[in-house]
Amino acid sequence: MNFQIQSKALTLAILQHNDPIIYYSSISRYRQYNVSGGVIYNSNSLQQPDEKEDRLNSLTPVFQSVSIILPVMDETISLTKTVEIILQESIADIEELIIVVCDRTSDGSMAAIASLKERLGELLVLHHQKLPFVGGAIREGFDLARGSHVIMMASDLETDPVAVANLIGESKRHPSAIIATSRWLKGGNFTGYGRVKLIANWLFQRFFSILYHTRLTDMTFAYRLFPTRVLRSIKWEELKHPLFFETVIKPIRLGVEIIEIPTTWKARTEGQSHNSFLRNLAYFKIGFRVRFAPLSSMLINQSDGNAVSFKHTDKSK
Ligand SMILES: Nc1nc2c(ncn2[C@@H]2O[C@H](COP(=O)(O)OP(=O)(O)O)[C@@H](O)[C@H]2O)c(=O)[nH]1
Ligand SMILES: [Mg+2]
Fold first, then answer.
1. What residues contact residue 132 under an 8 Å CB cut-off, 6+ apart?
2. Looking at ligand 1, which residue's alpha carbon is closest to its atom 4?
3. Angle 77-90/164-173 helices, nearest 10 degrees?
4. Distance from C-alpha of 269 to C-alpha of 275, rounded to nearest angstrom
5. Quick one: pLDDT at residue 73?
6. How far is 28 from 215, CA to CA, in rounded Å?
7. Which residues are CB-contacts of 316 (< 8 A; sequence separation ≥ 6)?
8. Given 3.90.550.10, 3.40.50.300, 3.30.70.980, 3.40.30.10, which CATH number is that of 66-298?
């Protein structure tokens, strides 16, 4: 195709989909663009809303299966419980559980993983990360995933595994959307988060929701479901916890539909957090940078070796 990219929606959609008619939505509205012979025109008024929604879903037309990424540092019982609850509720929809470990993962965790591997066989994929930190672990999980969709979560029970079934249910209804969980939505909550942290979290969410013109209420919680195509189209930068914020702000800017469902957060009882309160300042840096960055800088080029090599492993195509 030979044309100039004129909107954020097109940039992403072109990389996701080669058909001449492409669509995108924001949280509040749908738009349609028709790309034909180098001419781009908005044909919004030509379609009925339900037809538009059908076409929109054609970006990732159906939910087929989900790859769940579980980074592990020091969890044993929490990891086993997480896996058991997920499989109990949703085994038919799971492509694989990708457990990502590093050199610092505890011996206890490695033993728990070995025992899960014995029980689950090929359903469990164990990966030793090469990139550093939690962001590196998650990003390598994105590259490995074979499902049409991916869930990013933790193995310390702070991301309530019961909500996996809700994420999948919502994704079946909206396969091209990102489904995010929110602790701030009605029906969600925090237990044991600490008053100062809670106020700081609320202020942060409000500030960035205004800056990004979004109604999302929880942009920092690392518990979301993504269409695999979306993850493979975007260039990820962060290696530490700010990746959890980056994975929502880049899709917002690129016009990907994001739907929030409520969830509960409860402080872990095993192991410890590997984030520090002060390190949260790094979230501001990526928050401001991405807000004003050119859209083309956020996308993997089609000619990029990575984008091409993903094609044959991505079942959603
Ligand atoms: N593989 C891997 N897992 C990690 C790393 N850092 C944290 N995790 C895991 O990622 C999940 C989320 O990390 P955590 O430190 O609890 O983040 P917080 O809840 O935001 O404080 C937990 O299950 C951790 O065990 C890392 O460097 N590598
Ligand atoms: Mg945690």
1. 102, 239
2. 134
3. 40
4. 16
5. 98
6. 9
7. 60, 64, 147, 148, 149, 227, 228, 229
8. 3.90.550.10
Q: What's residue 186's pLDDT?
A: 95
Per-residue pLDDT tens, the chain, 317 aa: give them.
333 334 555 454 544 443 322 333 333 333 322 222 222 222 233 334 344 444 444 578 899 999 999 999 999 999 999 999 999 999 999 999 999 999 999 999 999 999 999 999 999 999 999 999 999 999 999 999 999 999 999 999 999 999 999 999 999 999 999 999 999 999 999 999 999 999 999 999 999 999 999 999 999 999 999 999 999 999 999 999 999 999 999 999 999 999 999 999 999 999 999 888 777 889 999 999 999 999 999 999 755 434 333 232 333 32
Binding pocket residue ranges, ligand 1, CB within 6 Å: 71-75, 100-102, 129, 133-134, 137, 154-156, 158, 241, 273-275
Beta bridge partners of 70: 99
| Closest to 243 in 3D by CA, of 147, 145, 317, 138 | 138
* Identity of residue 283: Y
- Which among 68, 134, 155, 204 is the best mutation to test ligand 1's pocket, defined by most ligand atoms within 8 Å of the CB? 134
Domain edges within the chain: 8-59, 66-298
What separation in Å is there between the alpha carbon of 135 and the centre of ligand 2?
A: 13
How far separated are the first and last CA of the chain, in Å rounded?
19
List the beta bridge partners of residue 267: none
CA distance linking residue 250 with residue 238, whole number of Å:
12
Ligand 2 center–CA 154 separation, angstroms: 7
Q: Which atom of ligand 1 is nearest to the CA of 79?
A: 23
At 111, the amino acid letter reads A
